[in-house]
User: Fold this.
Amino acid sequence: MDKSISTLPHRIGDESALTPGTKLLLDVHEAAAMLGCGKTTFYTLLSHGEIPLVKIGRLTKIPAVSLREYVTRKLVEHEARVAL
Assistant:
């Protein structure tokens, strides 16, 4: 039986359904652009463990879901500080 992408589960955790062309992993430039920061700032976030990365050979890839989790975590932290 052919296991094409259309027969695979369409959910990973609580994330939106995957569609053809949806990237699971981004390069550093794409991820930095999505956060609206520069490459140097993004590498700092990676080195401090703020955003997890995936190494594929020599390539550094960023799980797209990690960016959403990072932003959500920062919003929660901000709301907690403001509430004090």
